[in-house]
Write a structure and sequence with these properties.
Elements lengths: L2 H11 L3 H14 L4 H13 L3 H14 L4 H13 L3 H14 L4 H13 L3 H14 L4 H13 L3 H14 L4 H14 L2 H14 L4 H13 L3 H14 L4 H13 L3 H14 L4 H13 L4 H14 L6 H11 L6 H13 L7 H5 L5 H15 L16 E7 L6 H12 L5 E7 L7 H9 L2 E4 L5 H10 L4 E4 L9 H5 L5 E4 L14 E5 L14 E5 L29 E4 L8 H13 L4 E5 L3 H13 L7 E4 L4 H8 L4 E3 L8 H8 L4 E4 L8 H8 L6 E2 L2 H12 L2 H17 L5 H20 L7 E2 L2
Parallel strand pairs: 1-2, 1-4, 2-3, 4-5, 5-6, 6-7, 7-14, 8-9, 8-11, 9-10, 11-12, 12-13
Length: 756
């Protein structure tokens, strides 16, 4: 070998690639038909990522020396990296045939076979390499990767374990094993692996990303944020990381900072659909900036129309803005997506759109499976003890609708037979209702700062027999606690009037009106039918004297139709009925709850288009409950919505003495008002279609005597009918709880039953 060649190879071995390349090219000029300078130049180009330059050099070297095994291996590697896996396999087959005892040739052949989609052959190639060299790190690592892709996680874990016994600081193996350990060995094992990986390489980006995502999913956003901060120091121009940083800040309640992070993400990548979606959602929920929010969600849909839940989020936003153009086609597309099993819309939004109980069930099942894909632990039997322990899980132990309904029930529970504990996923507030609820419960456990696993452990430590889910998919749910089977019996009640579509909920509390016997199949839970209305009510609510009409912002004369639902429950069909009622009842007004300016302006425009002046739509400011109940008594007739009825607002109207007119819907959420009216002894105010609803509303508005008789009947029933008899309701609910626990103690599967 010439002195020039020796010097070039020495420089190459020292890592001085540019100097070595200069000498290799001089060597090549001297002996252009020698395979060696072509080969070494090709290797340098490979090392520098110049694959398109490397390949012709290696091709020439092979023509000059077709039997050189190391050359065949490098040639095959280059072809594979250039995306020519089939040709790479051919070169590596030759290398293996020439030197079958070389483990490296089998490893590279395995990589090429894997890239060619020939997984079983690739696995055999790695096995051949390990038979020759049992501790070959590259073979162990890529074999474990391949087994993961082949959906053989336990075998993959064993492969990573074997590698890490040889190389405990193999960062990629630790990081990848953590992802598998997450589902096979639990989150603690995963976090340990990521911790060791970062100890070996504190700047390892895949580990930081995966650990941050996992910590966020575990309900540990503060720790996740620390990892994202480290990532941003390494990757300040990565839009994806800025988006995740913003999402984590939002989970911590730091909305202003979250918005800044989403803005940065979109400055770096204006077409990042998830950042558009996140910013749009934040702009609406935190800032009520409707137009900007809609623009973000529309752009996100255009960029990534199949993003889970996104189309439903946009449809729900438009409902809140009373923007109804194109509504029918949009909702039909959502229904088709649900029927196809796609995660298009979340169950809470779909309730306000669909009247099809089968579609509502399918939507809930899709959501439950997507949110909690891991199978729940098996159901366990409730222990026998003197008193049944009930746990109520809610984010709304405060001045909120669920608390207004349930406060009296908590207080009325028979303490000689039941212990009740609140598991609070909300926040503390200095309010009379909060103080009242704290006094009502035997225990009050704050689970908001706990992740699902620790919250479930708190439930188990309290020895809860029946855990009641008062949020479902509404508000700030904690379904993850239920998915972990925190209690022997788990119940869906009040907050979400539909099935949760989940195997980890045993019962749903209902009545014969909201869930008729022949519709039991639309509920994944066993149905418990209470004898009157399913809805709890508090008989201790105030009955303050009403203010004057002027003080409430109403005209001194004229008929007052009202509805105090949130405006997303309005539909063009129901609003058209209301406008015709205004047209046909001189001097009447429609009294609604003040919402966002966009929705109110839309409703006024639609009214004016039908010849109804904007002044006849009166929007009431939100008030404290006692003040609201006082002014509500000024209304003449409460007009219900469909497909999503008034729920707490319907009870408010009846408590205030205002007749409530409803149209019975086709699903639970659309039958609540009918349930309440039956429990008040007022079935004559239940209609079966919108034509009958409109006719009866107009008849009542034009017949003062008939309306007065209804108000008198309502005033009497308020003190005698089951709806507001909190003690009677609580006894019925407790009877249901006893049956549930006895079934559990007998190791019997949950089955539907009625409380007579």
């Amino acid at each position: 070998m010439s002195q020039l060649a020796q010097q070039a190879i020495a420089l190459h071995q020292q890592g001085r690639l540019a100097d070595a390349e200069t000498l290799y090219r001089q060597w090549l000029a001297q002996v252009p038909e020698d395979f060696a300078p072509h080969y070494y130049l090709g290797v340098i180009c490979m090392q520098q990522g110049r694959l398109t330059e490397a390949l012709p050099l290696l091709d020439t070297a092979l023509r000059l020396n077709p039997g050189e095994v190391s050359l065949l291996i490098n040639h095959g590697m280059t072809l594979r990296l250039l995306g020519c896996a089939g040709e790479a396999v051919a070169s590596l087959d030759r290398a293996v045939s020439l030197q079958p005892g070389l483990a490296e040739a089998h490893v590279q052949r395995g990589l090429a076979l894997g890239d060619s989609g020939r997984a079983e052959e690739a696995l055999a190639a790695y096995d051949n390499a390990l038979a020759l060299q049992p501790h070959q790190a590259q073979a162990l690592f890529h074999r474990a990767l391949l087994l993961t892709d082949m959906d053989r996680p336990d075998a993959a874990l064993a492969g990573y374990d074997a590698l890490l016994t040889q190389q405990p600081r193999h960062v990629e193996a630790l990081s990848n094993r953590a992802l598998l350990a997450w589902t096979r060995r639990g989150p603690d094992a995963a976090l340990a692996d990521w911790g060791w990986a970062l100890a070996a390489d504190p700047r390892h980006r895949p580990t930081l990303i995966n650990r941050a995502l996992a910590l966020g999913g575990m309900g540990r956003p503060a720790e996740a944020l620390a990892d994202y901060e480290r990532l941003l120091a390494l990757m300040p121009d990565d839009a994806e990381i800025w988006n995740r940083h913003g999402a984590t800040l939002r989970a911590l309640g730091r909305s202003r900072e979250a918005l800044a992070s989403f803005n940065t993400a979109l400055r770096l990548n204006p077409d990042l659909a998830l950042a558009r979606s996140n910013r749009g959602h934040l702009r609406w929920t935190e800032e009520r900036r409707y137009e900007e929010a809609k623009a973000d969600l529309e752009r996100a849909v255009a960029l990534e129309p199949q993003m889970p839940w996104l189309a439903g989020e946009l449809a729900y936003l438009k409902m809140q803005g009373a923007e109804w153009d194109g509504r029918a086609a949009e909702h039909a597309a959502l229904a088709a997506s649900i029927a196809a099993g796609k995660p298009a819309v979340r169950p809470f939004a779909w309730q306000a759109i669909s009247a099809d109980p089968a579609s509502l069930q399918q939507c809930a099942r899709i959501h439950a499976a997507a949110e909690f894909p891991v199978a729940a632990p098996p159901r366990r039997a409730a222990p026998r003890r003197e008193r049944i322990r009930i746990g109520y899980v809610s984010a709304d132990f405060r001045e909120q609708a669920t608390a207004y309904l349930m406060a009296g029930v908590y207080e009325a529970h028979d303490r000689s037979q039941f212990e009740i504990t609140a598991f609070d996923n909300g926040f503390d507030e200095d309010s009379p209702m909060r103080a009242r609820l704290r006094a009502a419960f035997g225990g009050f456990t704050d689970i908001a700062p706990l992740n699902d696993e620790h919250a479930a452990q708190a439930v188990q430590a309290a020895g809860i027999d029946i855990l009641v889910n008062l949020n479902g998919y509404f508000g700030r749910p904690r379904n993850g606690v239920f998915a972990l089977r925190a209690a022997p019996v788990q119940v869906n009640y009040l907050g979400f009037p539909a099935t949760l579509g989940a195997p980890w909920i045993d019962y749903i509390i209902a009545d014969r009106t909201v869930i008729p016997q022949d519709e039991r199949r639309f509920y994944d839970e066993a149905v418990v039918w209470l004898p009157h209305s399913y809805q709890a009510n508090d008989s201790r609510r105030a009955r303050p004297a009403p203010p004057t009409r002027e003080a409430a912002g109403l005209p001194t004369q004229g008929f007052v139709f009202c509805n105090f639902n949130q405006l997303y429950k309005l539909t063009p069909e129901i609003f058209a009925v209301w406008l015709r009622l205004l047209q046909n009842r001189d001097g009447s007004v429609l009294w609604l709850l003040r919402d966002n300016d966009i929705a109110m302006a839309s409703l006024r425009r639609r009214a004016e288009a039908q010849g109804i002046t904007a002044e006849r739509l009166i929007f009431a400011e939100p008030l404290e409950l006692d003040q609201h109940l006082a002014r509500l008594a000024l209304a003449d007739l409460f007009l219900d919505t469909i497909p999503y009825n008034a729920h707490t607002t319907a009870s408010d109207a009846l408590w205030a003495g205002v007749p409530l007119l409803t149209c019975r819907g086709a699903a639970f959420a659309g039958r609540v008002a009918a349930s309440l009216l039956k429990a008040m002894g007022l079935p004559e105010l239940i209609t079966e279609n919108l034509d009958a609803y409109e006719s009866l509303a107009l008849a009542l508005a034009q017949d003062a005597g008939r309306l007065t008789a209804l108000r008198t009947k309502l005033a009497t029933a308020r003190d005698t009918a089951p709806l507001f008899d909190t003690s009677r309701f609580t006894r019925d609910l407790e009877s249901a709880y006893r049956v549930m626990v006895e079934k559990s103690r007998a190791n019997a599967a949950p089955t539907s039953f009625a409380v007579e």
